[in-house]
Amino acid sequence: MSLPRRLAFIDVESTGAHPVRDRITEIAILRVEDGVLVERWESLVDPGIPIPPLIQQVTGITNDMVAGAPGFEALADRVQGLLADCVFVAHNARFDFGFIKNAFDRIGRAFDARVLCTVKLSRALFPEHHRHGLDALIERHGLHCGARHRAMGDTEALWQFVQMAQAQFAPDVIARAAERAMKAPAQTPGLPEGLLEAIPDVPGVYLFHAEAEAPPPGRSDRPLFAARAVSLRARVREHFAASVRKGKDAELREQVRRVEWVETAGELDAILREAELVKRLRPPFNRVPESVDEAFALRLLDNRRRPPIYERVPIAGTDPAGWQGLHGVFRNRREAENLLRELALLYRLCPRRLGLESGTIGACSAFHAKRCAGVCARRESAAEHDARLLGGLASAGIKPWPWQGAIVVAERHAHSGREAYHAFDQWCHLGSVERREDLPSIDRTRRFDADIWRLLGRWFAVPANMAAVEPLVPGEPG
Questions:
Q1: Greater model confidence, 421 or 184
Q2: CA angle 114, 118, 119 (to 5 degrees)
């Protein structure tokens, strides 16, 4: 036989993609023995938790539909009987297997089976194609699916795919492909079955936790690590790759017992969420930035003969539109002094007048090294010196806001359908909403945040991102 004698084609629908946190809402099983369909079974399942609106839209399964359905415990005997002595066949099989295994675990029953993934089977048989999702298989091979994203419709499409493959390829080719498709991936110690396979291939942020279960509401749930990704699935899997064997990455991997993630509408959405999470939760494995609540700028003091010739002006939470004569954005004294040292070298400025060197009598050390024009030795006036300083500081200031008013950046992920609308003004993040019609509700008060300013500078440096900007209010200049 090119395939195992007993196969159980299975598909589950659920309240979400997380095999531990989410629950099954529908199960369909086709039991095939010696190439003959011997049993066909399906049932809605009461998940015991609400189905999110987005999932209801995708699957068509509503809270009302499952309200009177049996819970998984009532169906467990039937499910286990249909799967008994069979190879577990599903598309992205570890996802469905993880949901079934975790459902059995929750009622105190063990479950295990050999698994055949039809994604891997398709890749082995049709390596010339790049897409092997179920939609791609249905389109490419002309499969019939009575109800896409419903358990029985998807399961029947898989059975058709396997029948088509057996008719097209020799038994030995099918056997080799099936062997590859049944090869179990290396399991990650400490993580639930199917979790890595359940992570979607979409942008978002992810969090690694040391505790297997989330704490009760009201208690801290500080993660070990938080980050963003253009593809959650690919990035999280990199953390658990076999090549990660030493160093801080290996130490993190050994401690992870739970992975949480939040899908986003795009990269900017993920960047903003990551910045907020890291700042608020301060995960120990992250490189946590210094607090921007102490951010300040420099303002030169007129007609000062002795240092300090500038003052530090707090800018965190203020409106940049009201700044006058401010230069630079600094999170701490060290950053400001580093810039002043750099300007001293470039413009032959006096480190003593800049407050970088102590002393009041005689010329500074830089003057003796011919790196200071000599304000400290009365070779030039304080006005001449400070004019060069002002010229240097001009390049360190915040660039002018490129638009005449507040702007919005819209993001939409084609696969998930998620949308996000981010409003900005004068380098400040005014807020984000998931629906365009909610944009007028955004508070347009500007509050400066140094981290947001930096990430926006990098984001808008990409021409394609600049092209996506539109006025926050239609008709206003952008």
A1: 421
A2: 120
